[in-house]
Amino acid sequence: MDESLDILISYMLSLAVMGYVVLVWVSIDHKIWKWILISLGVVIYLILLMILSAIITKSC
């Protein structure tokens, strides 16, 4: 259980860093809405993966 918690924390940290980088990038250049949408899709995908892995680890 501790390992999955560490993985979850590292996921959240990487998501926070990614979000911060995207915010800084947007404040520098406003013409990258396509990249914002792509990165949002990646974030949603990672969150779905985390939820799926949590369900799988609980059922086992």
Helical/strand content category: mainly alpha
Terminal CA distance reads 12 Å
Radius of gyration in whole Å, from Cα?
14 Å
Task: Give the beta-strand count.
Answer: 0
Number of helical segments with 4 or more residues: 2
List the uncertain runs: none
Give the mean pLDDT.
78
H and E order: HH
* Shape by Cα distribution: elongated
Number of domains: 1
Helix content, binned percent: over 70%
Determine the strand fraction and express it as a percent band.
under 5%
Biggest β-sheet, characterized?
none
Keywords: Membrane, Transmembrane, Transmembrane helix
Transmembrane segments: 7-26, 32-56
What this model shows, in words?
- Keywords: Membrane, Transmembrane, Transmembrane helix.
- The protein is mainly alpha-helical and about 60 residues long.
- It has helices at about 1-30, 35-60.
- The protein is elongated and about 45 Å long.
What topology emerges from the helices and strands here?
Layout: H1 2-28, H2 33-59
From the structure above, extract its key features.
60 residues; mainly alpha; elongated; transmembrane; membrane; transmembrane helix
Quick summary of this structure?
With 60 residues, this protein is mostly helical. Helices cover 90% and strands 0% of the residues. The chain has helices at residues 2-28, 33-59.
